[in-house]
Amino acid sequence: MNWGWVTGILASTIRQSTPLLFVAFGTLFIQSSGIMNMAGEGFMLLSGFVAAYVTSITQNVWAGMIVATIITGIVGFFYTFVVQRFHVDQIIMGLSFNSLALGLTTLMNRSLFPQDTSSQQILPEFTFKPLGYSIPVYLGFLLIPLTALLLKHTRIGLKIRAVGEYPLAVESVGLDVIRIRYIACIIGTLLIGFGGAFLALGINNMFLDNMTGGRGYIAMTTVSFGKYTPIGILAAVALFGAGDALQFRLQVTGSIPYQFALMIPYAMTVIALVLFARKSRQPSSLAKPYRKSK
Fold first, then answer.
1. How many other C-beta atoms can be found within 10 angstroms of the C-beta atom of residue 153?
2. Considering the entire predicted model, what is its pTM?
3. How many domains does the chain have?
4. Which of 27, 40, 135, 151 supports an S-S bond with 157, CB 3.0-4.6 Å?
5. Domain contains 253
6. What phi and psi values does residue 168 have, to the nearest 5 degrees?
7. What phi and psi values does residue 258 have, to the nearest 5 degrees?
8. CB burial readout 189-225, b (16+ within 10 A) else e
9. Within a domain: residue 79?
10. Which residues have C-beta within 8 Å of that of residue 282, sequence separation ≥ 6?
11. Would residue 96 count as lying in a domain?
């Protein structure tokens, strides 16, 4: 067995999984509160562009990561305001936001960055890489126990899960359902923003038009496949990351047409969803507008 090939796939799997891990856990927070996160793709594109732009100006990769994360959280607040205040259809709202983010970031990218591929590598990389991985990779895996602890064993975590299941019951004991959902969605969009920023800076080292390639939707799939548990989500994310790493290797070797190689991570995710996600139990109030009782 070619152990170099295996270790290369493993290392690539870890790197490719990291952005999706942040986005998936961000989606977990949002959907656990009862709000459908169809807008993950748009949040990632927005964050990735801001991260690339700020990094190109400051030449500081962490400045790009932090600014992009904060801006995504702010946009997430206003997105949540529209969803809750006007009771819009959450699926349509999410898809519309994704289209807007795609068009806006494509326009800004072509306006502000050179489109010649040879001159597009203008962003600095993470310089501190203990054991070969940058700090966000370790933060991603630290996020697993922290999320489990927060959602399962803290008051705010229990409140988030409660409003996702029975918002009227939560209201009946004097808690503010809307406020709790704001908290969950801001936490979630901050995590998604961090993941989108790392995709641009830690994986691609540039911003590309539509660089997410459906990862926002894949994140929703991993939450469903993982049955709303951190360990289950990690397994689902690792599956997609392994498929992503494999398709890159196959493209390099040229053993199969690259069009088929590109399909591998998505095909693996769809098959896993069909086989295992049917038994997933989503929050009872997911995507259902909440109206305060009188």
1. 9
2. 0.93
3. 1
4. 151
5. no
6. -70, -35
7. -65, -25
8. bbbbbbbbbbbbbbebbbbbeebbbebbbbbbbbbbb
9. yes
10. 31, 224, 228
11. yes
Per-position pLDDT tens, the chain of length 294: 555 667 778 888 889 899 999 999 999 999 999 999 999 999 999 999 999 999 999 999 999 999 999 999 999 999 999 999 999 999 999 999 999 999 999 999 988 877 654 345 567 888 888 888 999 999 999 999 999 999 999 999 999 999 999 999 999 999 999 999 999 999 999 999 999 999 999 998 889 899 998 899 999 989 988 889 999 999 989 988 888 878 877 776 666 776 777 787 778 777 777 776 666 678 999 988 888 776
The answer for residues whose C-beta is within 8 angstroms of residue 129's C-beta and 6 or more apart is none
Check if the beta carbon of residue 62 is closer than 8 Å to that of residue 227: no
Token digits of residue 158: 């229990």
Phi, psi angles (nearest 5°) of residue 148: -60, -45
Answer yes or no: is 6 within a domain: no
Q: Name which of 228, 210, 248 is nearest 13 in CA terms.
A: 248
Domain extent for 181: 18-116+127-214
